[in-house]
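Good morning N.,

You mentioned wanting to compare the apo and holo forms, so I went ahead and generated the holo version with fe (ii) ion. This is what I fed in:
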Amino acid sequence: MRERVDAVEPLVPDFYHYDDAPIADVRVGDDGLILEWPDGQTLSCHRFWLRENTLGYGGIDLATREGLMDPAELSDSMQIGSFALTPAGDLTIVWAPDGVESVYHSGWLRHVVEGQHLPQSWLPAPEAWTAQTLTSPPRCQATAVLEDDGALCDLLNHLLRVGVCVVERAPTEPGFLNELAARIGPVRDSNFGLLWDVKADVNLAGDAKTNTTANTGLRLGPHTDLPTREIPPGFQFLHCLINEADGGESTLTDGAALVEELKATHPRDYEILSTRRWVFFNRGPGIDHRFSAPVIDTLGGEGIPTIRAFYPVRAFPDMPDAEVADAYAALRRFHELADEPRFELTFRLGSGEIMCFDNRRVMHGRKAFSGSGQRHLQGVYIDRDEILSRARAVNRGRAASPISSSPH
Ligand SMILES: [Fe+2]
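and this is what came out, ligand included:
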């Protein structure tokens, strides 16, 4: 690392280290300053944003590195009195009328130019896949994921890129998922519990003792869990403890690929599926979860939509009567596509293997059982926010280490 010209490196509004990126020029902009680097890149900084990001003096708290300034405190009289570049290429401002002096680290300012402050930074971009382009799920070793941040980083990057990864060679003791989850973040609870069991018994089909289709020997078509929630669980981890049953292969289908296919070949169906609502209803003694949303739910944002596709809990159309027939036609098209072998990755989950996938993007399913035998899985959910947070941290840690590689 190059020596700084200044003896003291300015503090930054977070806890990361930034390499110096000396600013070449600073000039007055529209109600703020415009910074320019030697490569011609510029950053326009509003004066209020600069003031909010002053370390101390009621700006950024030195202990928490969070902003302290209530927007009501921002005043028209708060002006940039003077500004300059230090010998190291950092920005300094003396504020009028209170004389507060702010120093901004050039590397921290540059990271904004590079877009490294945005939510999608430090993360791999999603890649839609079919059974032709992804012939088997990526795999990671359980021990490595527990002990090595590089292996954890690989797991999280697989989950964010293709939405799928199998962690193999895990112990077959119940509760191991808690250990794996502790490496990532808090587990998401539901009425099935923090750590839930899927004990499929081929003789249980039609038996009233189970509260979910998952606990029968029936085929489970491609679906996503808990569409009855406003935000369904982000990622699902299914740990296979015992799999002695004949049949019961696992299937995974990339919802992102289905959406791409629908948009390209049946845009009207896509439009219907992404706008017409259904009431999803989780029926059970003492519980009454329900939510009304489209099957392809963009949640008002960009990026890969959330697929709400668990037909056992899709209960009522929530749209004008005249639109129901078209909505059913579009729904049939969507599920026919999901059932096509070209989209469906099929494999047998063996004991000691953990199938990890993006529950809001990738549809999972199970073939029917034949014959007899036990099959015992345990599952946990971890929300997308937790996966994203940990992935950014470990990708950033990996980039800062001597042997670095990009999240791609
Ligand atoms: Fe499921």
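The chain has nine helices and 23 strands.

Happy to go through it together on a call whenever suits you.

Best,
F.
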